[in-house]
Amino acid sequence: MTEPILSVKDLTKTYGDTVAVDDVSFDVENGEFFSFLGPSGCGKTTTLRMIAGFEESTSGRIEMNGEDLTRVPPHKRDVSMVFQTFALFPNKTVGENVGFGLKMDRVPKAERRERVAEYLELVDMPGFEDRDPTSLSGGQQQRVALARALITEPSILLLDEPLSSLDLKLRKNMRFELKRIQDELNTTFIYVTHDQDEALSMSDRILLLNDGRQEQIGSPQELYSRPVSQFAADFIGDTNIFHGRIARTNGNVVDVEVDELATTLHDVQNSINAGEGDRVAVSLRPENIGLSDARSNGEVDGRIDAVTFYGNSTRLLVEVNGEEVLVEIGGQGGTVSLDQNESVYLGFDPEQAALLEA
Amino acid sequence: MGIRDDVRKVDVSLQSLVGGRSLWIIPDVRLIPGLAWIVVVLGGSILTMVLYSFMVDPLAGNFTVTFEHYRRFLGSSLYQSVMIDSIVIAIKTTVGTLLVGYPLAYYIAVHSRRRNLLLLVVIAPIWINEVIRTFAWMLILNANGVVNYVLMDLLGLLGEPLRLMNTANAVVIGLVHPLLPYMIVPIVASMLRIDFAEIEAAKNLGATKLQAFYEVTLPQTKAGIAAGATFVFVLSSGAYLAPILLGGSGNNMIANFIGLMFSEGQNWNFGAVLAVVYSAVIVALFAAVGLLTDVELGGATSMEDDE
């Protein structure tokens, strides 16, 4: 593998007694769409601001193309940032906003004008040069902010929750736009969000942060299907977390007796090296739980508590031994007729279960 | 129910909020107290002034027109040079408050937690009686005052005292101090409307601290500076007490001469001429500055900026 474009090692940031970022390390590859994901206050924005140079790290290193950034002031770093509030200059026109980075680089006016037109074209806003940015809609301001950040051709583009102030529909459109622009320019994107849908749908890799610590780094698929902690399983997507005990170990698979379901899951991947008799947790995604109206081997019986129709799927809350289990089935409805209080049988796919520390 | 009905309903509800009853030529009865004050008190006194400048004694019923006093003013270089000196002092005071006040305003604007306390400290000098405050400056600037004590006796930098008192600069110093809040408050107000992420964005795009200030912060505080400068210039150009106490006999400003004409001088007509001419000069200056710089004076309070 080639040398990473950005390498963060043991990065820590404290404010007095508060630890905002706690010993975080990761590499970002050239051309990657890399996301920091986590609840608010998890340290994702602070980490981004340290990369931009707006905050000083308490300890640890940030290297870009192998060069230490610690002593490099913000205006000399080869990164651009898109701010949550867009931070367009209200005293300048759209064209002056977009061309600002070039002006600072002393690019002659004529060339500047050409490049501004080119980047306004890129974000699908041609001819907006003379408009007042404060008169634009949120989505348009977002595009101007993007063009302004990209025009200096930075090695890395930092995006701090750029879609959070847009409405839902626009947010979904902008996701495709961002991906399209990233593909077109092949720039490395580092994207901060608390929205798991955004992170899952756009990222090549995700760094999951919780309370300043890194929980997991991996592709969206890895984070979704192989969470390493209860926090990771719970934060990304919806899941059922059950508790239980290892009944038997066999090579790299184990049998787990699940308390809530009063059943045993056989041959679950032992990703946490649990030993026989250990207490563990098991995460089972709603779509990995099967539903039938006749009992077969290993199934447990339950009663439908609530049915919610989502168009492309249906979600059920099924009561099993007094516990609610979330089940999702595809649009066709399967073999069971879905009525409240109906009895159903639940089947579990142990291959899809994720074993977690209790 | 169509859209039109809704529109009318909105209009009606806004009408109930905005429009009061109109009366004769007054569009809204709620304007009456303010209008009365402006027309009777302010307009009346200005009118009296203007009438006295070219009539013998209008309040006593003598409306004989005479331009003798205007001729006297035009023929005398003393009063013209006093006016120029007064304007120079006002300009120096305005520049002084800007140079001292702008960095202070910046500090206050960015330190959100201590902002109220700092503003209180800045405004405090206004609470102190003008005479006491000005006497305090005499103690500081005197030949054997605080400044000279520090420079000569404590530091030994000077052999003989600096002559600070009874100079035009003493007047400027005595005016900058109490007028600072008039400069600082509008600038702070204009700074608080800036999203500080804009300054970070500028740095992120390659601007040094100074460039970020010049490109982003300064242009957005122009309206605040204009408002502050207007306040300070107007207030200092009519200063009365500071020139008497700190400027000595050689640095009287125009307000002192106008006062003299109305008291010991007993020449209301000439006092009125000085007042009218000086007011006209100040208004002309503002008009010229407004035309040349395209800055809306007092713009911090304009409706457009508030949106």
Tell me what the structure shows.
The complex is a heterodimer of chains A (358) and B (307). Chain A is α+β, with helices and mostly antiparallel strands. Chain A is 23% helix and 37% strand. Chain A has 9 helices and 20 strands. In chain A, strands 6-7-8-3-9-10 form a 6-stranded mixed beta sheet, sandwiched between helices. A 5-stranded antiparallel beta sheet of chain A has the order 13-12-11-14-20. In chain A, helix 4 (109-122) crosses helix 5 (138-150). The longest helix of chain A has 18 residues, at 168-185. By secondary structure, chain B is an all-alpha fold. In chain B, 72% of the residues lie in helices and 2% in strands. Chain B has helices at 3-18, 32-54, 68-75, 77-110, 115-127, 130-141, 146-154, 168-192, 197-204, 209-220, 222-237, 241-247, 254-262, 268-293, 303-306, and strands at 55-57, 62-65. A two-stranded antiparallel sheet of chain B has the order 1-2. The longest helix of chain B has 34 residues, at 77-110. Chain B is globular, with a radius of gyration of 25 Å. The model of chain B is unreliable at 1-8 and 297-307 (pLDDT under 50). At the A-B interface, strand 6 and helix 3 of A face helix 9 and helix 10 of B.
